[in-house]
């Protein structure tokens, strides 16, 4: 798959001939993505859809430096990540990439604000004011001191989004962020993402099975059957 680029714009993220091999016990290796090419432009809101097993989540992990391709390479702002050290990839993730997954993975022993502050704390840049602002941005300023068990599923996911934005990432990568939410909460999440994109210029890439969500994104890149 190769997707078109707007002329005269430099992609913030690129994948060239990407493929990942999964070695199955007692079976041949399974190759996913099939030599995929992809370009993501700065400030875009892009959906990635396709059937189960086509490598959507794998693609997100490769773009975010959580995994390495067996074939091809990923570029961030024109610089290849191929051969990068684990320390370099850790800095890349911490400084440039925010992740939101289907299951929010909030820390149950910490309240909403403490969860949002965690990435800043790890980076040695704890900023409680920004944490409060992010919770306000996702409509949870009044719930800052509530623990995850005291929040609804939609609220937990909004805390996860605020946490992913803590270190002002250039790119927000989201894997089925509305997969466990009802239609109303899904629409609320999309409204939040549109606001974040408009106000902060964040590039947002969403893996989703929801064709309704995908239809409201700027582009929908479909990964076909392998």
UniProtKB/TrEMBL annotation:
It holds the Pfam family ABC_tran. It comes from the Bacteria. GO terms for cellular component: membrane protein complex. GO terms for molecular function: ATP binding; ATP hydrolysis activity; transmembrane transporter activity. Residues 13-226 form the ABC transporter domain. This is ABC transporter related protein. Keywords: ATP-binding, Nucleotide-binding, Transport. Gene3D superfamilies: P-loop containing nucleotide triphosphate hydrolases (3.40.50.300). It comes from Desulfurispirillum indicum (strain ATCC BAA-1389 / DSM 22839 / S5). CDD domains: ABC_MJ0796_LolCDE_FtsE. The keyword Signal does not apply. Belongs to the ABC transporter superfamily. Macrolide exporter (TC 3.A.1.122) family. The keyword ATP-binding applies.
């Amino acid at each position: 798959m190769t997707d078109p680029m707007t002329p005269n714009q430099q992609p913030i993220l690129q994948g060239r001939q990407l493929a990942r091999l999964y070695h199955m016990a007692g079976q041949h290796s399974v190759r996913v993505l099939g030599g995929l090419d992809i370009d993501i432009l700065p400030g875009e809101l892009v959906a990635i859809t396709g059937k189960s097993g086509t490598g959507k989540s794998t693609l997100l992990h490769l773009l975010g430096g959580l995994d390495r391709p067996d074939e091809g390479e990923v570029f961030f702002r024109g610089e290849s990540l191929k051969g990068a050290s684990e320390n370099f990839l850790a800095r890349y993730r911490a400084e440039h990439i925010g992740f939101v997954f289907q299951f929010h993975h909030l820390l149950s022993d910490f309240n909403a604000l403490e969860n949002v502050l965690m990435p800043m704390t790890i980076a040695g840049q704890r900023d409680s004011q920004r944490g409060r602002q992010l919770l306000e941005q996702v409509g949870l300023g009044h719930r800052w001191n509530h623990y995850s068990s005291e929040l609804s599923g939609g609220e937990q996911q909004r805390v996860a989004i605020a946490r992913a934005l803590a270190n002002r990432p250039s790119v927000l990568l989201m894997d089925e962020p509305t997969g466990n939410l009802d239609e109303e909460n899904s629409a609320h999440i999309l409204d939040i993402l549109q606001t974040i994109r408009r106000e902060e210029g964040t590039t947002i890439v969403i893996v989703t099975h929801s064709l309704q969500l995908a239809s409201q994104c700027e582009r929908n890149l479909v990964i076909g059957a392998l």
